[in-house]
Batch of 2 targets.
Target 1
Amino acid sequence: MTEEPAAALFERRPQSLVITLLGAYVYPEDRTVWSGGLVRLLGEFGFSAGAARVALARLTRRDLLARVRDGRLAHYRLTPRAAALLDEGDRRIFSLGRDVRAAKVWTILWHAIPEERRLERGRLARRLRFLGFGSVQDGVWISPHDREREVAALLEELRLVGHAAVLLARPAGRLDFEAFAARAWDVDELTKRYHAFVIAFGGHAPAGRDGLDDHEAFLVRTRLVHAFRQFPFLDPGLPDDLVPTHGHRAQAVGLFHDLYGSLAEPAQRHFDATTVPPGPRRPR
């Protein structure tokens, strides 16, 4: 894997990496994972033991992880909130770029959220971007798909129903929507990141992956998933005539699905071997 493109794609936040690890190697199973093993795995990506333990504690405070004691050992399991977010994430990630078509119905969200609710406003913005929304101006978001159900559930979850309105519409055929899309989404950045993804991981598909041991397969597959997780925040899912990616999106999507499946078995072996706690007991 080419180091420079890979490093640029790798989000350096241990909390985010923990979610990637549990989403790729535990979910949808409801089981616990030894905390010491998670700390070791984060160490393989350059995070100190202290930073790893702080990340686990913060995820617990955010109700994304639940801490489970078994004697002197600590374990973690995904909370129902985390499972719901991973379920939503999987639907978005594994469908991205698979069925790109011209949109007939667009979703428009308008909101006026008071300053004292800025935490919820920030969460709303992040979740909207993950659903493929783009920001046209402050308080106005658009998606080139019918997202009424997802947005309604999100507003309910964040208790923002009284501060927002949702409209469904269709674009006027006589207007230049390529220019409009370029205003709502950073098309140039999206294309560059897809291209960097192909450069970073292309050497492992298909022939180059055969020589990887379990540890190497784990590192490559985890970096692959962690990098690809960022694309739903950038890609609205429009066809190339409106969001021209010059074929890089198709290459990246094909590469992701190929390596995600082909490296699954050896990567899972390494994850399981590292997260086995010392001693005969293992909570369930």
Note: The chain has a mean pLDDT of 87.
Target 2
Amino acid sequence: MSHALDTNSLSLFYRDVRKVDPLSREEETRLARLWHKDEDREAARSLVVANLPGVAAIAREYRHFGLQEMDLIQEGTMGLMHAVKRFDPDRGFRLMTYASWWIRASIHDFILHSWSIVKLGTNKLQRRIFAGLQKARNTIAAMDGTQAQEVGAEFGINGHEYQEVAAAFLQRDLSLDVEREGESVVDTLAGASSSPEEQVIASDWSSHQEGLLHTALQSLSERDRYIIMQRHLSDPAVTLKELAKDLNVSIERVRQLEKRAMGKMKDCLGTPE
């Protein structure tokens, strides 16, 4: 009975959401300023409602964890509401680009808290690895092997073993950021079909990733930017020892500078801890 109710609620949700028109950049900026300057609750509500299709699109990526899609959407909506409170339209990017961090973090926490009812046969190590995927460094290691050996060592396993476990968590039902033969995957979603709003949001997220990275890097000093570029954007990544020699400082000092620079980038992007 509960499953039937959830399915019905989900259908009603998609029916109502598709009646909402997407906001233009100008209208989104206007509403965001109304909320921040005048605490206009109706403006905040409009921002939340207009971006609900994006929450649903992200929630679908986590359906394979065995939780109800409507529950994932509700948790993602909480993340969206939190993002609306903090969103600064004058930074130059769209609300959904910024809110994606918060939406994913909220869903991520919900999955961890609900793990006992997810029938995946997980163990303590798998839980730790999944929790660690909130860090960009760990996700990159899982996806392309960069620093996989170092990341794996933090969990007491080798790089190959780390990639095998982490990859299972990253194999979502569908990734909206990937194109197949020139067609966005969101165009081929089964069941509750993707709306034009969802396609716009997926495209917006992809097109702004480069801009976000550029913005974050520009917030750093020249030295800090160099460290991040060498440690996280070079293939292969430069070791701490090599950077220490290059900068004529200790390895520990490079580690401190890297940690500080990553913190600055997170603050610049409004990334949740």
Note: Strands lie at 179-180, 183-184.
